[in-house]
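JOB MANIFEST
job_type = single_chain_structure
chain_count = 1
residues = 227
[input]
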Amino acid sequence: VVVAGASAGTLEEEREPVINWSPSLLLHSRLHPLYNGGMGDCLLHSAALATNGVEDGDLSLRNALTRVLRTINLYPRWREARAREAAMNGYRADDWQWRREWAELGRAAQMPRSSLEQTHVWALTHVLRRPIIMYGVHSIKNYRDEVVGLAQHQGIYLPFMLDKSQCSTNPVALGYVRGHYVALVGEEKDASGAASVMLPVTTPDGELLPVHFLRDAEVGREAALVR
C-alpha cells in the first residue's frame, strides 16, 4: 500500500484543508490517502482499498454496482434530487432527458475503466451497505492555479433505499482530487488499538457536510438524517 503524497498535499492545503484540519481529532487519528491505479476504475479501487485493503482487480465491485443500479429503484430519488439541483441553476429537463441521463449512468457502471461520478458513489453505498463520506476540494483549478469551476463531490452519501437494520453505521472515507478518487485510511494514535478513527462530518467552519440525493421533503433535516 502506497500513500498518495500529491493527493495528501492537495487535501491538506493550508488555505482550504478538507482533511486533518481538526487539532482535537488529530490527537486520536490522522487520515492518509492511498495510491490506486486509476484508469477509470479509481472509485472502485478506492472503495476496495478502504474496506478490504486491496484494489478491485477482479471487477467484483463494478459488477455489484451494476446490479444495484438494475435491481434497487434509485431512479425516483435521483431524479428528484437532480431536478432540484437543475432548478437551482436555472434550467429544467424533460422526462426523456432524465431517463437518457440515467441510462448513460447505468452504461458507465457496466464498462471497465469507464469513469464514474457522484451518482455511482451514492449507488456504491448500497453495495457496501455503509455510508460514504467524501472529502474533496471545493474548487477546480487549471495549471495556473486559477479557479475554473466548483467541485460538488464532497459530502455524505447514505444508503437511503436500504433498511437501517441491514446496514453498518461505520462510514467509508474517500477523497476526491482533480477528477480522481482515493481511499482515506486512518492512522490510530493509540498504540493499544482501542481508539477508533474519527471522521469529521463538518467543514472547518463548523457547517455540516452536504448530504447528497435528498428528497425535497428531507431538505433542512440533514442533521437528523446523519444522526
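[summary]
The two ends are 33 Å apart (CA to CA).
The chain has a mean pLDDT of 89.
exit_status = 0
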